[in-house]
Amino acid sequence: MQLPYVLKAPATAIIGEKCYSALIEDLDYKNVPCIKYSISKGLGMGIVLGGAIVKVPQIIKIVAAHSAEGVSFTSYMLETLASVISLAYNVRQNNPLSTYGETFFVTIQNLIILGLMMLYSKRQLSGFIIISSFLFLGKLLAQTSSMTHLDGSVVTSTLVPAGAMAVLQAATIPINLASKVPQIIENYRNGSTGQLSAFTVFNYFAGSLARVYTTMTEVDDMIILAGFLLSTLFNCILALQMALYWNATPPAKAGKGKKAGDSLPVSSSSSAAQGKKKSKKLD
Residues annotated as region Disordered (predicted)? Predict the structure, then answer.
């Protein structure tokens, strides 16, 4: 079967000439390797496209409420750190864009959310410093330069050695897992997910699940695979919390004259302390 060039060109670019010929032209649906590869590529592109909008509902929710109530600042700091390292590592490894493209979009959206948290807590200068620091770190880790010798050989030099990058990528596993823990604890203490976006949580879970498959199919890197496996487990816990607290309302804030964004919703300890004061008055 022959497809028009406008369809053949993108299909070939995604699954390759060999698998395009086998599956599209020859209709060889018994070619298991090409079927698995094509599914992986399709999932990968879907995840990348989903990653471009996965945090948009979260951003809209925070802007609409003028508050990041229930969204853990610590979680976003750790998640952004892991994303910056992972993005630089994949770029340095020349991995297929379909296996990590969403990391770029998630990093940008996380920086926006961190900026909004700082904005609504009246800490604009801190927000500028945080965002600038993450951008500088990403540039530092991904920076490479090539030099051509007289004999025609090309030597690539980096600011951060490959061995150090492998260690940093391995470190993203505990960092990523640690980024989920504050949000899980925040949800449990509040008995609510606050301004946390259901779209973001469920898409993260589905995306990490799909990433396990694409990594196993296209990338021979146990460090990246282990990270996605463990991330899927913690994303599953967050998805279960979202379902459990679906109709729950966040605890009311004490203080009528307090404006939204006066303090960061990093912890619910202050609300717990206020609750104790109220109970003493009732006694």
Answer: 252-283
Closest to 24 measured CA to CA, from 42, 8, 36, 10: 8
Q: Can you tell me the distance from the alpha carbon of 125 to that of 86, in angstroms, rounded to the nearest whole number? A: 27
Cβ atoms < 10 Å from Cβ of 154: 8
- Distance of alpha carbon 142 from alpha carbon 210, whole angstroms: 26
**Do 156 and 145 form a contact (C-beta atoms < 8 A)?**
yes
pLDDT tens digits along 144-184: 776 665 666 666 678 888 889 989 988 988 898 888 888 89
**Cα torsion 62, 67, 71, 76: sign:** positive
> Could you give the count of Cα atoms lying within 13 Å of 82 in the half-sphere of its Cβ?
22
Tens digits of per-residue pLDDT, 185-211?
888 888 888 778 888 889 889 888 888
Provide the whole-model pTM.
0.69
The per-residue pLDDT for 281 is 42
Give the pLDDT of residue 278.
45
Find, among 244, 158, 228, the residue nearest to 196 by Cα: 244
CB-based contacts of 176: which residues, under 8 Å, 6+ apart? 78, 79, 82, 227, 230, 231, 234
For residues 117 and 67, is the Cβ–Cβ distance under 8 A? no
CA distances from 38 to 13, 117, 123 (A): 11, 40, 47
Helical (H) or strand (E) element with 157: strand 154-158
d(CA 183, CA 164): 29
With beta carbons less than 8 A apart as the criterion, state whether 184 and 241 touch. yes
Closest by CA position to 99, among listed 267, 247, 225 = 225
Asked whether the beta carbons of 237 and 261 are under 8 A apart, the reply is: no
